[in-house]
Amino acid sequence: MSDVASSAGRGPVKLEFSRMPQLRRSMPRMMLQRKPALVSAGRAVPRIEATLAGYELDGGKLLDYRKVCGFAAHPYLPITLPHVLAMPLHMEMLTHAAFPIGLLGLVHVRNEIVQHRRARVDETLDLQVVIEGHRDTERGQEFELRTYAKVDDELVWEERCTFLARDRGRARDGKPEGKGDERRGPPPLADALLTSFVAPAGIGRDYALVSGDYNPIHLAALTAKAFGFPRAIAHGMWLLGRIAAELEPRWPKGRTRYEAQFRQPVLLPAWVMLANRAQEGRIDFELRDDSGERLHLGGAVAPAD
User: Fold this and answer.
1) Are 125 and 39 in contact (CB under 8 A)?
2) Where are the domains of the chain?
């Protein structure tokens, strides 16, 4: 690996890997770093980039991922799997000294994947991840982590993850003060097909074993309580994988966009309802609690423009 960060720590940082980095390097940094919760006034997130060429998927990891998310076996990568493959690169960047805030406490608020074509499981991937800058919002500061997967210089998959660093002086639980009644979200999706699935008590640990995402809010009630949750919460990317597996038989053909906005966490264990409505090649969906009142996330699958 070569790291060409400027000595001042404020210039561009490029991390080039010849093999996938080990999460055991970055996870202790995530837990032990003492960084501010927000980017200081007058500062900005520098461009931080990580690349890895020639990544070959391990068959065991593919089988484990299919099992934990419920994907059927076929010759193509599940649409959410490249996020997991790039997870060690994400961690190297977000725990790097140049990233100015602490990783613990960041909230995943939106996700968008564009699958330009379905990548085969036997294809070799070139991975690139970039983060740069931030924007101020009424709830705090948002950051966009962009991930790209190429096969022989052909872009086959890209993702934009949006994270929020909450400004606790202005917001509570990721929402502006005084807006607690709006947390239930809009009325349920009309004329929708309803299915359901269980988010087991141990799914946070099971998914962590596959993905490498050992954020303590997902692992156990004891560690989640330290961050203000009464119980462990489901990984957002596990939920997106589980929903994709459910909808995959009706997935649009060709170039596809899969997007979602996270609203309220799923406390484990939980029985959740998935409502989805297909029309004109687009599938809108919502994930709600078993009463149908509390909206956990909503999104859509559609042909990409």
Assistant:
1) no
2) 1-169, 189-305
Distances (CA, A) of 172 to 93, 155, 224: 27, 39, 17
Task: Report the C-alpha gap between 77 and 71 in whole angstroms.
Answer: 10
Amino acid, single-letter form, for residue 74: H
Q: Assess if CATH 3.30.2020.30 describes domain 1-169.
A: no
pLDDT, tens digit only, all 305 positions of the chain: 544 333 334 679 999 999 999 887 877 777 778 899 899 988 899 999 999 999 999 999 999 999 999 999 999 999 999 999 999 999 999 999 999 999 888 899 999 999 999 999 999 999 999 999 999 999 999 999 999 999 999 999 999 999 999 997 765 544 444 344 445 567 788 889 999 999 999 999 999 999 999 999 999 999 999 988 999 999 999 999 999 999 998 888 899 999 999 999 999 999 999 999 999 889 999 999 999 999 999 999 999 97
- What CA–CA distance (Å, rounded) separates 214 from 204? 8
How long, in residues, is the chain?
305
CATH second-level architecture of 189-305? Roll (3.10)
Burial of 46 (0-12, 13-18, 19+ CB in 10 A): buried
**Matching residue, tokens 């949006």:** 162
1-169 and 189-305: identical CATH topology:
yes
Q: How far is CA 169 from CA 177, 224, 297, in A?
A: 9, 22, 25
CA distance 99 to 96: 6
Q: Which residues of 64-76 are buried (b: 16+ CB within 10 A; e: fewer)?
A: bbbebbebeeeee
